[in-house]
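User: Can you predict the 3D structure for this chain?
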Amino acid sequence: MNLSDFEKTNYSGLYISKASHPIFGKKYIARFQFERKRYVKVLGYTKKDNLTKKSALELMNIFKESIVVKKEEEISKQVSINTDSPNNEALAKIIEENEQLIEILGDYKKLDPQVLNEGIQKIYDLEELKKYQIELIKLQNFLESQNKRMIIIFEGRDASGKGGAIRRITRYMNNKHYRIVALGKPTDTQKNQWFFQRYIEHFPTGGEIVLFDRSWYNRAMVEPIFGFCTQEEHEIFMEDVVNFEQDLVRQGMILIKLYFSVSKEEQKRRFDRRIEDPLRQWKFSEVDMQAQDLWDEFSEKKYEMLRRTTSRSAPWHIVRSDDKHKARLEAMKVILNSVDYDGRNYSLDYEPNEEVNISVQRELLQMRKSKNY
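Assistant: Here is the predicted structure, written as C-alpha cells:
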C-alpha cells in the first residue's frame, strides 16, 4: 500500500485514496502510531461499503481502541506470569506506576488515543517553553532598567501561527511594559496621512516592548493583492521602508522582524480545522477563504518583500511554522539573542534549529524551486 496514493483528511490518522475505483469508489484507510509501532488498516470503500467520512472515523476509532485493549491485555498477562517471580520488588514498582498513571489520566479509554497523545505532548512542550519564558522576563526587566525600546514584528500568511506565538511569548511578561498591536482598516483620515504615521502612534516608549501582529508590511503583501493600495503606493513603500527601519535602529530602537512561513498543505489543514471546530470557527474569515486560491500571488509578493526589505540593520528572521511548538521556541530564541541582557541562563540552548529558523537566502532559494512556502 503506497501512502502517496492517499491524502490526509481533517481527522488525524484517517486517509482517503486520491483516485476513485469505478465500482468500489474511494478507499478509506487508518494509519497511526501507538507505542512506537505503526498500524495500518483498510476500513472500506465509499461505494462498496457506503462509507462516509463520519462512519470511517468511527471504524478507525474502534480499530484504535482494539489495539489499546489488546496491548493492555498483553501487559496484564505478562504481569500475571511474573507474579510468582522472585523479582517481586520490580513488579510492585510497575503496578504502583501503573496505578499512578491511571489516577492522573482518569478514564482515558473514552478518549481518542491521538487526542490523548497530543494533550500529553502539549504539556511537555509548555514545560520546555517555560525555561525561555523566564529569560524573556529577564530581558523585559533589562529593557526597563536601561530605558530601551523594542519592536517585534510578526508577519506571515493567514494561519501561520503568529497569534499563538505572541501569546506564548507574552504569557508571563509584565503587562505594564508590553503592548500587542493589531491594527484594523485605516480610517479616512489615516488614508490621507503619511503611511507610517498610524504605526508610529503605537511605538514603544522607554522600557517598553510593542509586538505588532501584522505591521506596515501589509503594504508589501496584503494591500496590493486585494487592491487596497495602488501599484505606485506599493512601490513607494518598498523603496522607503528600508531607510525608515534603518533610522529607527540608528535612533536606538531594537527592531526584530519575524516571518512565520507555513506550507500550503498545513495552511489548508488549519483552515479545515477552523471550519469544522466550533471553538475555532470565529477565526475563519472571508480573506481566509481566498488565501489558498491566491497562494501564488502571495508567494510572489512574499519573495519580493523578503528580497528587497531585509537589511543588515533590520534583517528578516524566517521561522518555518508547520510545527507550532518548534516555531514558538525559535521565535523566543531570536528575541533573546537580540539583546545582551543581565542574568542570562547560559545552560539553555540558544542556537537556532536550522531546520526551523532559517536564513532569508535559504528561504528565497527554496521559493525559486517551489512555491510551497
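The chain has two domains: 3-111, 115-369. The two ends are 29 Å apart (CA to CA).
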